[in-house]
Design brief:
- Keywords: Oxidoreductase, Peroxidase.
- One of its GO terms (molecular function) is peroxiredoxin activity.
- The longest helix has 24 residues.
- This protein has 182 residues and is mainly alpha-helical.
- Helices cover 65% and strands 0% of the residues.
- It folds into two domains: 42 residues, no CATH class; 107 residues, AhpD-like.
- 37% of the residues are buried.
- The protein is globular.
């Protein structure tokens, strides 16, 4: 059972209703995570704005999805693992092997793998990465701006992981579960 209520988009009012209408128009549905975030329009709007801004960044949608899976695995967020596995496969056209490998911080492309390793280091070290971690991501070919975007993707996904783990959001995608239990 969920711990925080998912709002019915048809019954929502005010800013949350406006945001739900925009999500519905874009996605054809309002996922349960966003319906639950809608209890605070500030939370929902903040999440949407950061996600939209990062979507315009240099990393691209595929790497963003792979980072989301790497972070969700470390935070044992089954909602995000389920959502990003579905989105990664169906919308970003990422093969299932790459989706699975991302959860372990691995990829067949060394540059992508470096980003995933760095993302997992950020999570595991609470953001306190070492000079060696930063040098490794730079040697892989990432600019200071791209490194900042990786940090922002990790932060966005920590937000959604913590939110869904707190809310126990009902999963409305094909269910994927974390290999680790925390």
């Amino acid at each position: 059972m969920t711990r925080l209520k998912a709002l019915d988009p048809q019954e929502a009012t005010g800013r949350s209703k406006e945001l739900f209408d925009g999500i519905q128009a874009k996605l054809g549905m309002v996922p349960n995570m966003m319906r639950t975030m809608g209890n605070s329009s500030a939370v929902l709007e903040g999440y949407l704005n950061l996600g939209d801004a990062l979507g315009k960044g240099t990393l691209g949608g595929k790497l963003g999805e792979l980072i989301a899976l790497a972070v969700a695995e470390d935070n044992a967020c089954n909602y995000c693992l389920s959502a990003h596995s579905f989105i990664g496969e169906k919308l970003a056209n990422i093969d299932t092997d790459s989706l699975q490998l991302a959860r372990e911080g691995k990829n067949n492309d060394p540059k992508v793998e470096a980003a995933l390793i760095f993302a997992k280091s950020l999570v595991q070290k609470g953001g306190r990465v070492s000079n060696t971690d930063v040098e490794a991501i730079k040697l892989a070919g990432y600019t200071d701006g791209a490194i900042g975007e990786i940090v922002a993707h990790v932060a966005l996904n920590i937000l959604t992981n913590y939110f869904n783990n707190t809310a126990e959001t009902e999963i409305d995608f094909p269910v994927v579960t974390a290999a680790i239990i925390q």
